[in-house]
């Protein structure tokens, strides 16, 4: 009941849409209720959606924000001022469902495209949809509405939970998408097994092209059918991967998968990975699910971290996947840390992992960020700060580090109207490199001030004094200030400066000349000399820009080659000062001509554009003409695949490139363990023939198909060959998901009759044996152990069936053939696995197998006198055999009497008949006499 209540609370919280006035979306300052590490503060911005509705958000190129509400509301929040609703979409809001996901197109500046995931009612049911929309704009260029919906992905819905969730629009034009199992969370529901089926779209992470097809690098991609569900699947086995992000270093999804009974988990998801749901929850078999037939042999990729349900410091009830921190303002301990939260328990943790996706620093105990609201989406502010959507308050909450806050820079200019002694000041060129909104405090130098004002002000000076010094102070939300002074002569004309530039739309390659000219005149002084300064503005991110002063000069013109400094633009300032000390300046910013550089690899690997942020940065905008090196790790993320060279480039890991005039994609080639074995073994190449398909990743197992077989690899078993009828049976039987990976190449038995492979799955050994006479059949578990104990085929012969279940559902069995002799091994949990064969098996079969005597409780054994053989059975019966007497069953009370007399060692010796009935008397005949049984007289033995 407690679990049911907990789940009900969780779903009710997501479902709640509280009514209330929509507030202006402006910063409300620094929040103080949360418990945060020293130096951290929370800056809140109201979404205007009210409590219980905010689900997602994204930044537009101008740093304004689009937010989404569960009820279908889409709002735009400007950097300053009041937000507005731009659309209200039809949605199904029952329980978990609604408008859940938002992605801003990387080319939004030109396309105005966004992507939304939501559930929609249709004809008494509903569908779950990913769609592209175009944002319309008003006369001022501000978002005003949505139009042109284009459906990219849509699937039917079943239950009001675990629906369509996160969408990520990648820089390469592809999409990532998550969908939950859409099963009934209130009970064990076999429908959740869809999460294991690559042909069903539930419980998956998808990687899609711009038109909604699968990307060719997906593990189950079918070039003949790119629109199939399997072609779109990147990984499977998720319950509710509500929020995930793409690690910019690994290029892999990092997922928070919401748990069922006990466990929440964070997964670094490998290509083709299987996170095991519903058969596994975290690293634990799921009660009620793990015993289902559909869970037999299901592999599980362990999470990087799991925590269990509860109210403890390190517990929670609903994980929200987060993002990697890639900013620079936080302390070094947080650089490269993964931030994630639990919205039901209002906390945020961090953890770190290596380039193999292995945990290197577990979450802090207790968590560092508590009572922070209900985080349901994490993203990065323009300067890299962690921002999350708090569904409880309806606010965007930004985690800033005050000690790492960059001081703003104040810049101001002025123009004077001498006739009215009015000076107009302009401080709009002031800069905050954290991209924070600034407040402007003006001191006009005559005793008058204008605090908390805007960037532009006009002020009339009284007559009598001809010079003043005005001061502008700019403040960011954390209280950091910057100041500048402006010389003012109210009765003096401001010098007029004309600056001629290449134009605001011009861009420049490295070493391309940037040429400017300027003229300056003054009403009182005439022509004035122009002074030039320049600077390189280095911007690793927009939130971390800083200046490097460059060359200067004087004269009417100025020309400088564009900087080779990476991630930089240049500023050029022309300045003049008149005899009254009034200064005028104008600045031109020269922007780099940039192209997208993307590093990809044939296997997931750490690829680095070193100048763009260090290890693992594999995609960046880089300046045309720039020269630098890119690097590929010697070993891929799987720990086995080795770097072999760059396509079209060197075989060294490092490649020094010069950026050309178009976008560039560089591919690092890796030889997988499968490639390495195949390439190193000419005999194997001759046997297998040429590859017929790309390598496939299926959870922890990789395989590649060739003309005459397949090579399989896992970290535990290495690379092994499977071919012929054995391979056909293996694939038909469910492959590695049922039997696990092979542990040997397809091998011929010592007698030359059969071919076989052994397999292992979670410690359980299985085999497939093939002969021309028996075909190919699988055996595993306890039956295989018994067969092995009886000397494999040298004992019972080769299997003639796969393991099957008995009609009563209790037992499992395989049949075998050796020459013309049929044998079997039967297994039940109560009796274990036992072999039965020859004449005894024939008799047992004649007596209707387990329906007659029960299951074998022993293997066939020899009697002490060496004459006989026997099996005992679970219903208290036996079959005894000698050459002289044949095989006969001894049952019930007669068997008990015979046993009491000493079995075959008694005067009766061996049975000559099965038990039979004459005139209501039960009887079995033996070599030395007989035993009869009646209810009134019991069992009585008599000699002949």
Mean pLDDT: 91
Terminus-to-terminus distance: 70 Å
Radius of gyration: 38 Å
Q: Could you tell me the strand content as a percent range? A: 35-45%
- The CATH fourth-level homologous superfamily of the largest domain: TolB, C-terminal domain
- Main-sheet strand order equals 1-2-28-27-26
Structural class: mainly beta
How many helix segments? 9
Low-confidence stretches: 1-32
Shape: elongated
User: How many individual β-strands?
Assistant: 72
> Strand count, sense and closure of the main sheet?
5 strands, antiparallel
What level of helicity do the residues show? under 10%
| CATH fold node name of the largest domain | Neuraminidase
Number of domains: 6
| Overall CATH architecture of the largest domain | 6 Propeller
- Oligomerization: single chain
Kindly provide the name of the CATH class of the largest domain. Mainly Beta
How do you describe this structure in short?
With 944 residues, this protein is mainly beta.
Structure description:
With 944 residues, the protein is mainly β. The protein folds into six domains: 57-314, TolB, C-terminal domain (Neuraminidase); 315-401, no CATH class; 413-546 and 571-589, Immunoglobulins (Immunoglobulin-like, Sandwich), CATH 2.60.40.10; 594-671; 696-829, no CATH class; 839-844 and 862-943, no CATH class. Helices cover 8% and strands 43% of the residues. It has nine helices and 72 strands. A five-stranded antiparallel sheet has the order 1-2-28-27-26, with no helix packed on it. Strands 21, 22, 23, 24 and 25 form a five-stranded antiparallel sheet that branches. Strands 37-44-43-40-41 form a five-stranded mixed sheet, with no helix packed on it. Strand 54 and strand 55 (718-722) form a beta hairpin. The chain is elongated and about 150 Å long. It starts with a helix and ends with a strand. This is PKD domain-containing protein. One of its GO terms (biological process) is carbohydrate metabolic process. Residues 1-33 form the signal peptide.
């Amino acid at each position: 009941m407690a679990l049911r209540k907990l789940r009900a609370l969780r779903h009710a919280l997501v479902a709640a849409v509280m009514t209330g006035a929509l507030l202006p979306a402006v910063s409300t300052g620094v929040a103080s209720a949360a418990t945060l590490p020293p130096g951290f503060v929370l800056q809140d911005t109201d979404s205007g959606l009210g409590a219980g509705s905010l689900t997602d958000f994204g930044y537009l190129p101008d740093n304004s924000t689009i937010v989404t509400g569960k009820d279908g509301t889409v709002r735009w929040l400007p950097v300053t001022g009041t937000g507005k609703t731009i659309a209200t979409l039809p949605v199904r809001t029952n329980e978990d469902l609604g408008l859940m996901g938002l992605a801003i197109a990387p080319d939004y500046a030109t396309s105005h495209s966004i992507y939304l995931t939501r559930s929609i009612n249709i004809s008494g049911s509903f569908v779950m949809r990913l769609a592209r929309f175009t944002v319309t704009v008003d006369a001022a260029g501000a978002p005003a509405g949505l139009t042109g919906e284009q459906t990219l992905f849509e699937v039917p819905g079943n239950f009001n939970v675990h629906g369509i969730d996160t969408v990520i629009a990648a820089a390469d034009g592809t999409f990532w998408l998550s969908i939950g199992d859409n099963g009934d969370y209130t009970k064990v529901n076999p429908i959740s097994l869809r999460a294991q089926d690559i042909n069903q779209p539930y419980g998956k992470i998808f990687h899609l092209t711009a038109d909604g097809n699968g990307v060719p690098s997906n593990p189950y991609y079918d070039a003949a059918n790119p629109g199939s569900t399997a072609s779109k699947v990147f990984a499977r086995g998720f319950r509710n991967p509500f929020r995930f992000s793409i690690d910019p270093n690994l290029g892999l999804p990092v997922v928070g998968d919401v748990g069922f009974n006990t466990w929440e988990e964070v997964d670094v998801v490998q290509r083709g990975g299987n996170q095991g749901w519903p058969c596994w929850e975290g690293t634990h078999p799921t009660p009620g699910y793990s015993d289902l037939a559909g869970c037999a042999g299901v592999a599980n990729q362990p999470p990087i971290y799991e925590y269990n349900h509860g109210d403890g410091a390190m517990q929670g009830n609903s994980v929200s996947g987060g993002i990697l921190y890639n900013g620079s303002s936080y302390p070094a301990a947080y650089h490269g840390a993964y931030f994630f939260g639990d919205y039901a328990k209002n906390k945020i943790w961090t953890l770190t992992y290596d380039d193999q996706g292995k945990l290197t620093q577990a979450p802090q105990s207790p968590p560092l960020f508590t009572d922070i609201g209900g985080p349901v989406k994490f993203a990065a502010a323009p300067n890299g700060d962690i921002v999350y959507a708090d569904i409880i308050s309806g606010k965007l909450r930004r985690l800033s580090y005050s000690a790492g806050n960059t001081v703003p820079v104040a810049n101001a200019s002025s123009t004077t109207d001498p006739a009215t002694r009015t000076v107009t000041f302009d401080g709009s060129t002031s800069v905050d490199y954290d991209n924070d909104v600034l407040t402007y405090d003006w001191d006009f130098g005559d005793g008058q001030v204008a605090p908390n004002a805007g960037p532009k002000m006009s002020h009339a000076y009284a007559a009598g004094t001809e010079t003043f010094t005005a001061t502008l102070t700019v403040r960011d939300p954390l209280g950091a200030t910057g100041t500048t002074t402006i010389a003012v002569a109210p009765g003096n004309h401001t010098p007029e400066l004309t600056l001629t530039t290449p134009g605001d739309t011009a861009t420049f390659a490295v070493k391309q000349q940037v040429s400017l000219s300027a003229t300056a005149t003054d009403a009182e002084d005439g022509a004035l000399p122009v002074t030039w300064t320049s600077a390189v503005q280095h911007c690793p991110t927009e939130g971390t820009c800083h200046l490097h002063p460059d060359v200067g000069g004087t004269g009417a013109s100025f020309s400088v080659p564009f900087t080779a400094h990476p991630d930089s633009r240049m500023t050029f300032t022309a300045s003049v000062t008149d005899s009254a000390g009034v200064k005028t300046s104008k600045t031109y910013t020269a922007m780099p001509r940039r192209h997208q550089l993307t590093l990809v690899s044939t296997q997931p690997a750490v690829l680095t554009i070193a100048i763009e942020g260090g290890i693992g940065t594999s995609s960046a905008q880089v300046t045309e003409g720039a020269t630098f090196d890119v690097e590929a790790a010697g070993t891929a993320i799987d720990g086995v695949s080795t770097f072999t060279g760059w396509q079209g480039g060197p075989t060294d890991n490092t490649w020094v490139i010069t950026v050309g005039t178009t976008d560039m994609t560089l591919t690092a080639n890796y030889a997988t363990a499968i490639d390495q074995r195949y390439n190193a073994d000419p005999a194997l190449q001759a046997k297998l023939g040429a590859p017929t398909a790309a390598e496939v990743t299926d959870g922890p197992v990789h395989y590649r198909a060739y003309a005459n077989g397949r090579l399989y690899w896992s970290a535990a078993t290495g690379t092994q060959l499977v071919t012929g009828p054995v391979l056909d049976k293996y694939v038909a039987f469910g492959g590695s998901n049922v039997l696990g990976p092979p542990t040997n190449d397809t091998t011929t038995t010592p007698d030359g009759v059969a071919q076989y492979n052994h397999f292992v799955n979670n410690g359980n050994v299985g085999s497939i044996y093939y002969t021309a006479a028996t075909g190919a059949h699988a055996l595993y578990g306890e039956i295989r152990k018994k067969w092995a104990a009886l000397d494999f085929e040298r004992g019972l012969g080769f299997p003639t069936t796969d393991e099957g279940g008995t009609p009563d559902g209790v037992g499992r069995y395989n049949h075998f053939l050796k020459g013309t002799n049929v044998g079997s091994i039967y297994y039940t949990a109560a009796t274990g696995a036992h072999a039965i064969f020859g004449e005894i098996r024939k008799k047992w079969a004649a007596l209707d197998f387990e329906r007659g005597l029960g299951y074998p409780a022993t293997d066939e054994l020899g009697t002490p006198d060496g004459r006989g053989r026997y099996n005992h059975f679970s219903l208290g019966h036996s079959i005894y055999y000698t050459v002289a007497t044949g095989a006969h069953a001894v049952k019930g009370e007669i068997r008990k009497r015979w046993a009491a007399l000493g079995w075959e060692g008694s005067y009766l010796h061996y049975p000559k008949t099965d038990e039979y009935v004459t005139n209501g008397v039960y009887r079995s005949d033996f070599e030395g006499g007989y035993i009869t049984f009646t209810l009134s007289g019991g069992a009585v033995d008599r000699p002949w």
